[in-house]
Request: fold
Amino acid sequence: MNRPYIICHMVMSIDGKVTGDFLFRDEVANATDIYYEINRQYKADAFACGRVTMEGSFTGGWYPVLSQFNGICLPFEDFIADFDAKFFAVSFDRKGRLGWKTSEIVDDDPGYGGAHIIEVLTENVDTRYLSYLQSVGVSYIFAGKEELNLLLALEKLKNLFGINRLLLEGGSIINGAFQRENLVDELSLVTAPVIAGKDCKPLFMDSNISEFKLTKIKNYENGVIWTIYKK
Reply:
């Protein structure tokens, strides 16, 4: 397999929702702690999220002033900023909308902190953004002209960065895109004992029918369940 092994690792409600206000309820706190513990246990080479999740978890909506890079026109070529990095945060950000202040994720959790950032872009990006990424020391790769070619992105992540095991921890949109392309090899689902509201979003947006085999189930205190499904 010329791409990383993909594990979709998520906290979800009983009714299969993964984003929404229910995540901030006290009843979900224990499930979230277990989720982070499992994340560390996997010891994956990388974790990956979409733009919205990265913004909510790490960048906080900050964006650089690109005018300082006026007049610089870089080609649409992959850029590796750190050849020695061994742990990565992969950001699927096709138009280049995220503002990073450092080249690594800053987080106390060793499952995230210290991960070298890789932006996955399309050619539908302001070329000044490329200069900005280089100035911060963030790596980037191109995977498509206007829409993301996920398989191409994954092949590059393996061949350029040596990523063999990747945790997909995005929201519904990016998770759904992976699922529709048959790129999810394993599901790691931590289910909290709560039903989410109607405005919360599902594990996979616009999913296709596919079959998985239950390989593990573990019960925790306070009604939390961890299940693993594999292709």
